[in-house]
């Protein structure tokens, strides 16, 4: 599958929502934990060798499961391959919790559900559709009752 | 740079909602590309927009995408290409190629341009934050005018206590408890924190809906004891109690009302 890698690399250089040096392993046989610079930008998680400017890899954070594992550790896996886990060992339990919370909210789909929820609540409370003022009330992405994934 | 391509391709083809989809002709980019050169060719592809990702497939029923355009940070503009209904996705990056796409007609082009220019994660986040604020404000003003048992000025409008707006438990945003957002400050109390039976009168129970009042007070009465809670007209705000407790509370009220009604029936119709 082709993709605009150049733009993705550019995205990796943007200010991050969250960034830290975390020990990380990939779901490959014999993979060990290695210190990486892990950077969350919109719905992508980039990971770098700590002294390099270009990321080794990127994870799109849609349809993924963030799991708190043992102490200081969380993992990311994807819906269609739940056994393949990217593991992250944080410095502290607190850091681990923060990353779990941040990553759970890092998907476009999460934002969409939040928007639909708020829109509906505001409408119930005020009788007005809050999206009308932006002229986007008819956009497909904001509709109630969109099929659940 | 590696990408979790298998998962990305899966996301492209699974049945999560697409924000837009349709056929577009995509200009083929060659190495030595000039703005005006002969022999431009286009390939017809099936495009699917999901969030900030634009996928394209060879056919609408292809099992996996041929390609992906990550849209974050792009601009979408109408194109001065030789083709009618052409538009371009461009990126800030100097030397970055543009994606020139051609729609079937004016309406299709406008729909795509509109959808693509609102596709970024940043934009979505902005809108969500704005709505979050608005909900907080709406809650505050509702709390302010909800001091008396009388309903607010929005009379005549049904407020359903249905929980269709509540998100499924496992997927809800983490800020929700019992379907209500927890706000840090302001007049709203987080769901679950107050409850008539625990609170010693500090919070008033939700006001009785008018229908029930008239049923209780009329002698002949034609009440509807079987009224489901969802049909009751009563303003509910996160300041009172969470939906599940409300549901129970009204449920008990209805049971009591029903007994009352049945007693009256017995007495009135020997």
TrEMBL record, chain A:
InterPro entries: Boi1/Boi2-like (IPR045188), PH-like_dom_sf (IPR011993), PH_domain (IPR001849). It holds the Pfam family PH. Residues 19-108 form the PH domain. GO terms for biological process: endosome organization; receptor recycling; retrograde transport, endosome to Golgi. CDD domains: PH_PLEKHJ1. One of its GO terms (cellular component) is cytosol. PANTHER family: PLECKSTRIN HOMOLOGY DOMAIN-CONTAINING FAMILY J MEMBER 1 (PTHR22902:SF9), SESQUIPEDALIAN (PTHR22902). This is Pleckstrin homology domain-containing family J member 1. It comes from Atrichornis clamosus. The lineage of its organism: Eukaryota, Metazoa, Chordata, Craniata, Vertebrata. The gene is Plekhj1.
UniProtKB/TrEMBL annotation, chain B:
Residues 215-224 have a biased composition (Low complexity). Residues 147-173, 191-240 are annotated as: Disordered. Keywords: Cytoplasmic vesicle, Endosome, Golgi apparatus, Phosphoprotein. The keyword NADP does not apply. InterPro entries: Boi1/Boi2-like (IPR045188), PH-like_dom_sf (IPR011993), PH_domain (IPR001849). SUPFAM superfamilies: PH domain-like. It is found in: Early endosome; Recycling endosome; Golgi apparatus, trans-Golgi network; Cytoplasmic vesicle, Clathrin-coated vesicle. This is Sesquipedalian. It comes from Atrichornis clamosus. The gene is Pheta2.
